[in-house]
């Protein structure tokens, strides 16, 4: 694999020593949210404010990872429902997010008892628990008519998959979110999960094998968990979302080629952006 960077220079692409574009799930999501914010954050490397939501996300994600690292299936098999909930709670830290941990503990207790009844407790613990994956894919010049490219590009994908479970001959990635669920987030979540699928399907086979994963096992479903809303959703993987991600990457490359990262201004969401004060579009709109 070639070196990779956010400070990608399309004009140097033919130089084998020049790095290709790096794309993570977070950087892709930021670009989808607002290309100008992406430019400020990933290309210019301007600092962002550390919000309470960011801190909560990090703490709860770490707790979720630790939970599965220490969960004892043999011990859990001998516990009643209430004992199982208490056991799950004991595997979480003592901090400001106990209500969220309780929701998670109840959910996992029910899930474990269901797997015990079905005789599938061996699959209770995920096969992927916060694992970093790398892959390269080629984006064709004509991927999208709206954002045509001057050539084909190889790009480097990278991402940490929260969790991935094995069930009935397939892998099911599951994303944890610490915010509140809203129905409008479904499109965004599908793109995140499609990014994981694209990453997994193009990750080198030898790298997958180091994590005990089988390239020939397909991702047939995906889902997400919003414990703050006690909301869990699983669905069949959607080809349309997969295609949308590929087209979105082509759009990113088009921005690099043109040197233009346009602003998406929405008063309700832009007001909390770390770059609001230096964004020309936001300041122009604020005067209207």
Key phrases:
288 residues, alpha/beta, Lambda Exonuclease, Chain A, 2 domains, 7-stranded mixed β-sheet, 11 helices
Question: Describe it for me?
Answer:
- The chain is an alpha/beta fold and 288 residues long.
- It folds into 2 domains: 190 residues, Lambda Exonuclease, Chain A, CATH 3.90.320; 52 residues, no CATH class.
- The chain contains 11 helices and 7 strands.
- The longest helix is centred in the middle third of the chain and has 21 residues.
- The model has no long low-confidence stretch (mean pLDDT 94).
The mean pLDDT is 94
Count of alpha and pi helical runs: 11
CATH classification, class level of the largest domain: Alpha Beta
Ranges where pLDDT stays below 50 over 5 or more residues in a row are none
Q: What profile does the largest beta sheet have? A: 7 strands, mixed
**Which architecture of the largest domain per CATH?**
Alpha-Beta Complex
Gross geometry: globular
What is the H/E order?
EEHHHHHHEEEHHEEHHH
C-alpha Rg, in Å?
21 Å
Q: In angstroms, what separates the terminal alpha carbons? A: 49 Å
CATH topology annotation of the largest domain:
Lambda Exonuclease, Chain A
What is the percentage of strand-forming residues?
Answer: 15-25%
Q: What class would the helix/strand composition place it in?
A: alpha/beta
Total strand segments: 7
Binned, the helix content reads: 40-55%
User: What's the number of domains?
Assistant: 2
